């Protein structure tokens, strides 16, 4: 049986991906999932402000009907947004992470494109561009995760069943497996690092 081995140059690790393909029966693959996002590639705060100042807002401020005023505002405002951050369609993985945002997906695309240019040109300038996109993407991913986890915890803080179900999905062991854990959990309780289970549990529950 014939097969092909290929190395993929990646930008997020110092280890490249290696995979192989082999001949097999043809399987139907459904179409890819896509999402629409606003491209921030050419976004500029100065340009946004400049365009907003050129808009004639009289249809909004002179309108006596709230709904009509809102529709006018939305139309005018979106016309500016479409100029500085146009909508585009991108392909996504079948299982996109729940914390992922359109801004993260757009940044990942820009990072990967910059990496391909750097691999082709091998220049200092192209590497600096790639590094800038890479650092921006890492920041956006970290922030998106933090915002998602914080928001989800706040939403479930008054529902203990949902809260613990969510914590379990993050990797916290279930009740039947807690006793098998080899390490105790320690928390800073009133300025002292404490390992007493009751105090730790009470501190965590209050938080």
Protein architecture, described:
With 207 residues, the chain is of the alpha+beta class. The chain has helices at 45-54, 58-61, 66-84, 102-121, 124-156, 160-169, 175-178, 197-206; strands at residues 3-8, 17-22, 33-38, 87-92, 187-189, 192-194. The strands form three sheets. A two-stranded antiparallel ribbon has the order 1-2. A two-stranded antiparallel ribbon has the order 3-4. A hairpin with an 8-residue loop joins β1 and β2 (17-22). The chain is extended and about 65 Å long.
The major sheet is characterized as: 2 strands, antiparallel
Which regions are unreliable across 5 or more consecutive residues at pLDDT < 50? none
| Strand arrangement, major sheet | 1-2
Distance between the termini: 59 Å
Task: Determine the oligomeric state from the structure.
Answer: single chain
Q: What does the average pLDDT come to?
A: 80
| SS element count, helices | 8
- Kindly name the structural category: alpha+beta
Helical content stands at: 40-55%
Rg is 25 Å
Content of β-strand = 5-15%
Beta strand count: 6
Order of helices and strands: EEEHHHEHHHHEEH
Question: Outline, from the CA principal axes?
Answer: extended
């Amino acid at each position: 049986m014939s097969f092909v081995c290929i190395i993929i140059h990646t930008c997020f690790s110092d280890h490249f991906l290696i995979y192989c393909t082999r001949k097999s029966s043809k399987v139907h693959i459904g179409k890819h999932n896509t999402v629409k996002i606003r491209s921030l590639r050419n976004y500029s705060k100065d340009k946004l402000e400049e365009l907003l100042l050129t808009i004639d807002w009289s249809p909004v401020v002179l309108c006596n009907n709230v709904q009509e005023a809102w529709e006018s505002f939305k139309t005018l405002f979106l016309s500016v947004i479409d100029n500085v951050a146009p909508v585009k369609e991108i392909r996504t993985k079948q299982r996109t992470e729940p914390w992922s945002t359109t801004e993260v997906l757009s940044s990942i695309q820009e990072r990967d494109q910059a990496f391909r240019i750097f691999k082709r040109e091998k220049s200092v300038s192209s590497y600096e561009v790639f590094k800038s996109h890479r650092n921006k993407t890492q920041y956006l991913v970290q922030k998106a995760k933090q915002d998602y986890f914080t928001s989800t915890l706040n939403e479930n803080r008054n529902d203990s069943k949902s809260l613990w179900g969510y914590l379990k999905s993050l990797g916290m062991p279930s009740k039947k497996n807690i006793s098998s854990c080899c390490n105790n959990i320690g928390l800073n309780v009133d300025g002292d690092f404490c390992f007493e289970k009751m105090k730790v549990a009470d501190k965590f529950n209050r938080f």
